[in-house]
Amino acid sequence: MSEPVALSRATALDNNPRSRGPRLRGGARNLSPWTEYAIRRGGGVLLSLAILVVVTFFMVPLIPGDPAVAVAGADATSEQIDAIRHSLGLNDPLWLRFLNYVGDLATGNLGNSFAYSTSVTTIIATKLPYTAELALLGITAVLLISIPAGMSVGILTRGNRRKWLDVAFGMVTGFFQAVPQYVLATILVVLFAITWRILPAAGAATLTALILPVVGLSVGPICSISRVVRRETSTVLEQDYLRTARGWRLPALRLYARHTLPNLLTTALTLAGLILSGMLGGAIIIENVFNWPGVGKEIVTAIVNKDYPVIQGIILVLGFLAIVLNLLVDVILGLIDPRTLGGKRSNG
Amino acid sequence: MNTARSVLSASAVAAALLLTSCTTGTTPSAGGSTGPSTDTVRTALNSDPTTFNAAKANAKDDYEVARFLYDTVVRRDADGKFVGGLATDWSATPTEASLTIRSDATCADGTAITPSIVAQSLNYFADPATKNNFGKLVFGPGQPTITADDAAGKVNIKLAQPWSELVGGLTLAQTGIICPAGLADLDGLAKGSVPAAFSGPYTLTKASHGVTYEMTLRSDYKAWPKYAKALDGVPAKTVKLFPGVNKTTVANQLLTSEMDVSDIAPADTQRFDGNKDYTVSTVPFAGIFVLFNQRPGSPFTDPALRKAVAQVVNQQAFNAAAYAGKGIAYNSIVAPTVACALPDNSKLTKEDTAAAKAVLEGKSFKMVGTTSIGPNGAGSTYLQEALRAAGATLDLKLVDNGTWATMTQTKPETWDLTIQGDANFVGTVAASLTRIAGVPTEKGGRNIGGAENAEVLADISTAQNASDNAARCAAYTDAQTSILADNDIVPLVGEPQIVVQRAGFSIQAPSGIVDYGTLRITK
After folding, report:
1. pLDDT score for B446
2. What is the Cα–Cα distance from B110 to B257, expressed in whole angstroms?
3. ipTM for the complex shown
4. What is the domain class of B40-260+504-521 according to CATH?
5. Which of A152, A300, B131, B424 is 20 to 30 A from B1 in CA distance terms?
6. Does B21 touch chain A (CB under 8 A)?
């Protein structure tokens, strides 16, 4: 069946939330939505960064224990410990240390590790790519699997069709979502590395070493997002504009890819942004099980060592990345659905 | 819009792939396929080395890498006897020593290692400004005078006070000889970025913090120690060290041939039981004992209370709780492998729960314990439960190592007793006795217990003045008997260092101390 004439289609698709165009707020000020958005979010980013710097600096010294003792080692004398404390600047008043810290940050200097003979920047620059690699591959896998899977199930079960599929999908995704990461990771190692010997158990020496950590990291989020996508698909498919589109017998690909997918992407991408931020900062378990040399392991070691500059540096960088990622997701959402520039999302 | 989305998606994938090329390698997987060539040994470190400056090494991983990079003047043989390293010959009295330095040893840049270079390095090690933790254990109290006679090929050491264990101290990796280029650039030395600083068989060719460290065998190196029985196999051309690997993950990697030699956790040893492709060696890494705070005001200034605690402790139960039964039985404050250690457990206070209960009933104590003794601090939890069964209440604070060290060394008011882990790298009785005798930690000493223990100090002094082993051991026996009679400590077990070697690889542990310089490929 051919598509309806242009006039009818335009009228009918006016009900498609995406086709309405941006609802401009503050139009009287004659600023474009993007300019207004940039100003608003730019201020938010700066405020978030300022809070991050202050909180990070004052929170870290609350960790119990004396960094100088940790650095000095078990056989150090109190004289040596005092000398180390002095050389680390720990005898200075907190406000002075804060001023020095902010001054260093302004010049891009994150300081030197208390425990190791190296700069914090070097440590982060060495380890962040590993974590970023894992997280980016993980989120790519999550999006590539969960969106098609969730949409497919949503489409196949539309209008209470194939009830069994809906139940099975819910059970399987619910189960894998509930399995703790360390359990899943251990099972993966036992099966694929120790029993079948087809993949490395740990390390980052080879490309194949990426497979198990990425799987371990992605399974939970895949289940979460695919469940959300399934639910969103069901909702979107019940919208009037899609009923109309189906009535016109639009080709399936056009129907789902052009008119359905964009309307469920806002939720999926918002979630994916949060999950990616979490993966960057919270892949500690996966990094430990697979000996993946990322920042998650580093921050745990730094906390144990009372290595304040490393802890502060990693939190700061991860926090900054989380802020940037959230901003990026919002920009993408703005591109997909310009109404979100005003702080609202589509589909109500 | 569609174009924008496509670009964004493609960018994410491209970024991940780009990072992949920056991080992971492209060599074939070891898992079930090709491993590295047999000229490479892969091993794990507990964490990153804190420094590559041997003289400032103060953690296990520091000593481990120092053994690859720096030669010491003397080494230990498999039976614990001394063999030559950079020195071909030596003579020592309690107050001085003379070392004859071999003439064929060179630094990594080809500079000949002369007696002057050796003396310069040892002077740097002994210098209080270096602020290392081991100078006093090697040279004893006071500042030694170390001079070189290049014409005679000798280094002469004069001690400030008698210290008969100087030669043993000079086997420590921390006394490794640092070549002049390293001493001229101390920052670079600490970072490992001065190849010419190295006097040992390997140079550091790759250092990626938290990822991997790579040592490469020097082709011009000749100064191998002459052990009584030559070691089987050949040294690896490349040694790869992976820092911060979880011990259970290490066990996985050993089983999948991704790791060749490494320490594992006691609970993982059963995974290797009966597997003839692996050799498992267990040595005592650190002595574990109950240590009492005997400073004025602490309840454990009362000897009856210390004895009662000793009476409730069961070594086997502690061993099962903390080390899956793999700990090594201790008869005293040092491992049975240490020279002059007590030969049996006859001096230990016998278990007597009923007698202990009569003393401990209703008493309350403060304990600080580290989570590193047993899984999640199970060793301290065992003691808490043992005392609870005897009617006492133990307010246990389980903290990480750094916090524990802070509390025990600088805040004596926060604890009455603790479980001490004592890594005795020098391998002498004196090194452990100074934990409970002499100057307390808050006054700059090593004595964590806080009581001066003059009798023990006198025994240590007698031992250090002794010119023969029999006299030295007699004094040390007296000291050990005295601390056990007074229950200054309650020996538990030795924390096991369990080293697994895959078929084709070997490593030695002379005198119960794993020596990474003896790592060999035997296949």
Report:
1. 80
2. 36
3. 0.79
4. alpha beta
5. A152
6. no
